[in-house]
Amino acid sequence: MRAVISVVGKDRPGILAFVATKCAERNINIVDVTQKVLQDLFTMIMIVDLPEDLENMHQVAGDFEVMGDEQGLKIHVMHEDIFKAMHTI
Amino acid sequence: MTRSTDNIMETIRMIDEECLDIRTITMGISLMDCADTDIDRSCEKIYRKITEKAKDLVQTAKDISLEYGIPIINQRISVTPISLLQSVSGGDCTKYARILDKAGKDVGVNFIGGYSALVQKGMTNGDRELIESIPEALACTDIVCSSVNIGSTKAGINMDAVRLMGQIVRRSAELTKDNNCFGAAKLVVFCNAVEDNPFMAGAFHGITEPETVINVGVSGPGVVRNAILKAGKNATMDEIAEVIKKTAFKITRMGQLVGMEASRRLQVPFGIVDLSLAPTPAVGDSVAQILEEIGLEQCGGPGTTAALAMLNDAVKKGGIMASSSVGGLSGAFIPVSEDAGMIAAARSGTLKIEKLEAMTAVCSVGLDMIIILGDTSAETISAIIADEAAIGMINSKTTACRLIPAIGRNAGEDLVFGGLLGEGPVMPVGKGSAETMISRGGRIPSPIQSLKN
Predict the structure, then answer these.
(1) Hey, is the C-beta of B12 within 8 angstroms of any chain A C-beta?
(2) Residue B2: its pLDDT value, please?
(3) B32 with B207: CB under 8 angstroms?
(4) Buried-state track B223-232, b at ≥16 Cβ within 10 A, e below 16
(5) Could you state, in order of their start, the residue ranges of all structural domains in chain A?
């Protein structure tokens, strides 16, 4: 299942590495990364392939949110279909 | 950043900061096959059918919400108008309300609608028994919602039913006066009721609907307001309309996606997306604030009707292409107690019932969640219902009244319902009695608009 991981927070070294490591630990394959820092704000969008397992998806979304909170980052893991639906005809 | 990245961030911002969510996934369930001449047996069948058909509804909504990252606020059930079953069984109609309440709670939904009767042309015995039982049914249950259709463009207005409903609204408030008159907040009086409405308190599963169906209602006033804000003060009204259309498209696509997905997982046919912009009492989730963003000092002042007409039309135009099937009420809602901007405007006196009535002529749905003085007579309530129904009848649109007489409260005091239903001040009602007209009863004949063949 393809998903989008979005990360927003105050910029500092190691954010990309942190998220990428957490992905690797869960066997999540990163397909595409876009990242930018505007003034002090770090924004990153990752397109990833999740293992085909619904429970896993829920777990991953919850885990990333909690990990994000601990690091002062806002992390969302969302099914990519939502973006396709809203932004393409 | 690429275009798609911008799109992704836009969606996330809509959900995180602008209160975008799916208001409700509502499962419609036909209870026609539960009718039995024995009311207890009928109730047993109802309980069995609802708990079987809707057993996975709440969990499925939760799964979709987690997976797609979209909040789904409510799960609800609508059922066949209970007056039809009452016509077959007779007996103590409140038994149906109790069993609906129990079945709904056991499957974990937030509301269950369909304690309803459609009496626009006349009342059967079952209709009358159901209507007379509404106050008690709403007082002895928590999540059951009731609606009565008293008029339509095709049939005219049943003034006998209007007279009765004035008394029923009052009585519903009286029986729940220790609980903020909550009974009346779960009761809607319709003209031109729709059969696939996912929103409460007016949802019921019409007799032309399939065995079961999934309908979805979205909510996105905050998103629309922010889009208008970004368009700037120099944008012309037609440019604002375009902005609203585009935003409504995106919101509706989300509803369509969630509805289709819920339908697939539950193996229940997908019905409609209701395009209505449904506000909540949360800050930034207000239809009134959209109108104020368009350029009104406060909702309810001069210009409100025009701004609302444009908003309502643009929402429909944007939404219609985004969904394979649009239905329900589909317009902007203006429930006073459920909208922070409306509450503020009512408190300041800018927003009055008379203005709200004018507003209902250009949007869905009607005089919704309006708290009136507790000593307002049943005849006056009936007269307000008749006025509102007349707007619906002549304009071939749905109108509704959800009036809450604040029993035992004075002008200036508030009723607090909590949750999505919000809170609001007691609003003054126009003077002058309509007692003689209401006591006449009978029918307002169907208007010339009904003769289309």
Answers:
(1) yes
(2) 57
(3) yes
(4) bbbbbbeebe
(5) 2-87
Evaluate if residue B310 carries a pLDDT over 90.
yes
Task: Answer yes or no: do B8 and A86 touch at CB < 8 A.
Answer: no
Q: How high does pLDDT run on average in chain B?
A: 94
> Does position A53 have pLDDT exceeding 80, yes or no?
no
What crossing angle do the helices spanning B353-360 and B378-395 adopt, rounded to 10°? 30
d(CA B257, CA B320): 14
Rg (CA), chain A: 13
Q: What is the architecture of the domain spanning A2-87?
A: 2-Layer Sandwich (3.30)
pLDDT top residue among A54 and B359? B359
Element containing residue B161 per DSSP (H, E): helix B159-175
pLDDT digits (tens, 9 = 90+) for B21-46: 999 999 999 999 999 999 999 999 99
- Across the interface, whether the CB atoms of B67 and A79 are under 8 A apart is answered yes
Identity (one letter) of the amino acid at B414? D
pLDDT tens digits for range B371-393 = 999 999 999 999 999 999 999 99
Q: By three-state DSSP, how is residue B210 classified?
A: coil
The SS3 of residue B282 is coil
CB distance B326 to B319 below 8 Å? yes
Which chain B residue's Cα is nearest to A80? B68
- Per DSSP, the residues of B368-434 read EEEEEETT--HHHHHHHHHHHHHHHHHHTS-EEEEEEEETT--TT-EEE--GGG-EEE-B----S--
Q: Is residue A54 within 8 angstroms of chain B, CB to CB?
A: yes
> What's B218-440's CATH class?
alpha beta
pLDDT at A1: 82
Which of the residues A35, A58, A87, A89 would you substitute to probe the B interface, choosing the one with the greatest number of B C-beta atoms within 10 Å?
Answer: A87
Task: Provide the ipTM.
Answer: 0.85
Measured CA to CA in angstroms, residue A4 lies from A80, B19, B195, B450 at distances of: 6, 20, 38, 52
Q: How far, in Å, CA of B438 to CA of B36, rounded?
A: 36
Interior angle at CA B186, CA B281 and CA B168, nearest 5: 135
For residue A7, list its beta bridge partners.
Answer: A44, A75
* Prediction pTM value: 0.92
What pLDDT digit, counting tens, does each position of B134-155 carry? Answer: 999 999 999 999 999 999 999 9
Cβ of A77 within 8 Å of Cβ of B250? The answer is no
Q: Kindly report, residue by residue over B4-22, the tens digit of the pLDDT.
A: 888 888 888 888 888 889 9
Across the interface, whether the CB atoms of B250 and A61 are under 8 A apart is answered no
In 3D space, the residue among B150, B175, B26, B159 whose CA is nearest the CA of residue B94 turns out to be B175
Q: Of B29, B137, B138, B30, which is closest to residue B77 (Cα–Cα)?
A: B29
Work out the pLDDT band at B157, boundaries 50, 70, 90.
very high
Q: Measured between alpha carbons, how far is B23 from B234 in angstroms, rounded to an integer?
A: 32
Most confident of B88-97, B270-279, B411-420: B88-97
- Sheet strands (E) in A1-89: 2-10, 29-38, 41-49, 73-79
The DSSP output letter for B277 is B
